Amino acid sequence: MNPYQDLFDAQKAYFATNVTRTYEWRVEQLDRMGRMIKENEAAVQNAVARDFKTASQEYIFETVMSISETEFQKSQLESWMTPTEAPVPRALAETGHKGVVYREPYGAALIVGPFITLLIRPAITALAAGNTCILKLSSALPMTSALLLELVPKYFDPRAVFAVAGHREESTELLKLPFDFIFFTGSTSTGKVVARAAAENLTPVLLELGGQNPALVDKTANIPDAAKKIVWGTMAWGGQWCTSPGYAYVHESVADAFVAEAKRALVELYGDDPSNNSDYSRVISARDVSRLSALIDPAKIVSGGSSDPKARYLDPTIIYPVT
Question: From CA 109, how far away is CA 88, in angstroms rounded?
């Protein structure tokens, strides 16, 4: 028997009572989530920093965004729950017919994400929509996961929200269950696994698999300003956020000037030794440091290029030219 079957069945049965569809239940869950983060904000930030986000603006962002998201969802909830009239063909309208859109919850949702904003914020949205949810925590973030395993049962009925730790084996068992919705943030390779498992039960999925997000710099740009902003956007969160620019398309007439300004910006932002600068976060795992290092062509390194997998550290690195 699936080790999570009883938990899943309990959430499905709870959803079937229709209590989660009410405005009062949804607001209560949002309040619980907000309190969980707010009342333990320092502990959450400390856990995030110990895992890999050492930059203060980044671990503060994790909690502030989660708290503000609960307030935003509450402020919009009544309007989202209100049925809205939709247009119908003229022939139907002339005979008195109307079209109305009712926004209905899916049911039991599985949410898989690597860190707070990519786990808690989807959970906030799922709860606001009247769903129950199981949170699959990341084994790559032991401090954050351990804290959430402690906090979630203190603030939530397990029929509403439950946190599960573990690695591939636990994820495999969870994906065998016929969830009503799956939200996954992570790699493309794992996203394919999730999509295949969801297809077995025709479960709708939302896969957030990142991207390259190229930056464009034309010959009329303010080169120092563009370089500094692109360098910061690329290196923040250790380069591990979904909107990180993966590379820059720069007009050939200003390419050399851009590279020079980008090198200068790296020093301004992180100093001569980024490995000892807490404003530059670590990579999520040693394996990923090795993976990223293998992508670097030593012949094209303009700045950086060093790595230390054991410390989960990769230099902020500029490579030029690239094709």
Answer: 32
d(CA 182, CA 194): 8
208 is catalytic: yes
309 and 275 belong to one structural domain = yes
Are residues 193 and 51 part of one domain?
yes
Give the largest CA-CA distance in the chain.
75
Q: pLDDT 10s digit of each residue in the chain, 323 long?
A: 999 999 999 999 999 999 999 999 999 999 999 999 999 999 999 999 999 878 888 899 999 999 999 999 999 999 999 999 999 999 999 999 999 999 999 999 999 988 888 899 999 999 999 999 999 999 889 999 999 999 999 999 999 999 999 888 999 999 999 999 999 998 899 999 999 999 999 999 999 987 788 999 999 999 999 999 999 999 988 888 878 898 999 999 999 999 999 999 999 999 999 999 988 999 988 999 999 999 999 999 999 999 999 999 999 999 999 87
Same domain, 158 and 273: no
* Residue 79: other Cβ atoms inside 10 A: 8
Among 28, 41, 173, 208, the one annotated catalytic: 208
Please confirm, yes or no, whether 133 is among the known catalytic residues. no
Q: Do residues 239 and 298 both lie within one domain?
A: yes
Contact 241, 275 (CB under 8 A): no
Q: Which of 39, 71, 78, 242 is catalytic?
A: 242
